[in-house]
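Homework help board

Subject: predicted structure for assignment chain

Our instructor gave us this sequence and asked us to write out the predicted structure in token form, then describe one feature. I got the tokens but I'm not sure how to describe them. Can anyone check?
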Amino acid sequence: MGSVVLTVTLVAFFFNLRQVNEERATLTINLEQRATLLADSLKESVEPSYVNSSGASLHTALQRTVDKFANRERLAGIALYDNKGALLATSSGLPKTIIENTKSVSDAMDSNKSKSDFVDADGETRYVFVDPLHNDEGSILGALMIVQNAGYINNTIAEMWRGSLIRLVTQIIIFSITIFIILRFFVFRQVVRLVESIKQIRMGKKTEIFKDTDKYSFFAPLAKEINQITKSLSQARSSASEEARMRLEKLDTPWTAERLKEFIKAYLKGRKIFVVSNREPYIHNKIKNEIKYLVPAHGMVTAVESVMEACGGLWIAHGSGDADKETSDKNGKIQVPPEEPKYTLKRIWLTPEEVQGHYVGFSNEALFPLCLMSHTRPVFRKEDWMIYKQVNGKFAESLLREIKNVSQPIVLVQDLHFALVPSIIKKNRPDAQVGLFWHHPWPSPEQFSICPWRHEIIKGMLGADVIGFHIQQHCNNFLETVGQELESIIDFERFSVTHNGHTTIIRPFPISVALTNDVSPKEDNKNIKTFKSFGIKTEFLGLGVDRLDYTKGILERFRGIEYFLDTYPEYIGRFSFLQIAAPSREGAQKYKEYAESVKLEVDRINKKFEFGDWKPIIFEKKHHSHAELTPLYRETHFCLITSLHDGMNLVSKEFIAARNDEQGVLILSELTGAARSLKEAILFNPYNIAEIGEAIKRAIQMPPSEQHVRMKTLRGRVKDYNVYRWAAEFIKEVTNLG
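My token output:
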């Protein structure tokens, strides 16, 4: 539309310019004609005086004639000169600059022709016309100068431009309104309808949208083509659903999003799933007056998001983004994912005091270090515990409102932030089927016994029907903890705990990623990042992807790289390591101190080895989406994971899922839950710096054939137990269908 308006404006400008030039020429000609007529009339009166008079009488006669003609309209004045250019008579008020400028007078007498010109004098434009005077023999007696006001020409031209501009603006406004009405009501509305219809079809919500294609006006041919595509897509979906239903009966077939949907339809009969977590899957922030969203770099989000996209439902989480309220409705709800909504996210608003006490204080400074053996002392503060209980109650109340009219709701509580929620839900809604998945390791009974509120935490957890951990060892530790802390009946054959008449099943469910036979990780071509985009051009590449968390062993990792370069100096300048570190828990002092330590260690090692524009470690402290990480996973020679203790570690499985070329090497800490199943990775002790360095050397020198064998086996393991199978088995256990 802008180009059309510009074209119309240019056409109108040049048309008006032509009109203005023609009008200026016409006015100038008219002025010249009037001057000529007046000059002819005056010459008849003054030429006899030049012949018959001289001296004072000549001056008097000429001045009398000048005064007689001086007051005519648009006539600024008259001046008379002798044949030597001397002034004989002039009108009063005629500018001296014109009178004293005798060049035009001399030119007219020398050429014996009239001369004319436009002159600016005293801030006004004047038209000066000079005509020579003759006697009967034709000799030149002097010159007649007629000065006329010409300012009206410029005024007339300016008025024409103003009128043209007003007409142009009016025309543009009318034209724009007309175009807007046409686009808005005849084109845009049809396009919006088409886009919305296609979106509904893509999401599988409607299939008969394009039945009446004539209503799409001149988009009807496009609608007809889409109608045909819709029929084909519907048939493909039907075939996929049928195949998924058949797979439900076959235990050896892989789990997919479609199979999980069919599982939910077949076994849950339309019952809704409700998820409770602290971290939300989509965080909206305002960046330079533009609202953007990011997906947090967290294993829980990666796994549960895949399930919710496949099954739908309601996810309740803390709204932590500065634009979360602006993008949510009055109830804190928003449909997500933003581009293709498949479920509802309900945000709970917490005060800064609640965030500090619940998330930063008790969850991250008490429970988190208590569960992970990373040699960080837990900090137990009573005020944090009180806020922790308060926030658990706040989330439980919100959930109870949502499930008020829902029969037998399925509630999946996530992680250590809401250990008390299961018992609150079960107390108020005994019919609810509640699952609690603990995304971190469970410590030994001796380690957990230092917690002042251990009894309340365990009782809160035992309100769940099923408690899931990543591996069997964590289940064993939990059962031993319950046996040591509470009066209860423990069945080690069924792995269950009965407390106050309620039985809770304890099971391992190793969480995973969405890798299937025919689905590759999603990529967004607009956001593709390569090592070259970070300025890395070396022969050998290494990659680390973690939250900036002291349990991830990032300091040990960098010291392992230092050992590698010290021991094998031939790789200096030929090897680069890119560390993607997503900021995490920045409100906690321990994390601030750790982030500073990591930065100092990067600077120290780089300063030790760097030369020219090369440095061994490129440190990127920034959130990166899965679409941005996938090309990096595929390009690197190895992915290095040095967690000091980890419940599972999904980065290892994301790396495997991305390597559909069946190349690359996974170097994995043996202290992660993932190490229990990913035996084909290079496993090492993250506390042994030399082992890290040697593992890097081994990965770089590993032949492609060995890489292929290892990666193919690893991909088979992840594919066999992917996130859809994890969700199906966990939900199946929660709903007592096992």
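Reply (TA_rk): Your tokens look well-formed. For the description, you could write something like this. The chain has 22 helices and 23 strands. That's the kind of observation they're looking for.
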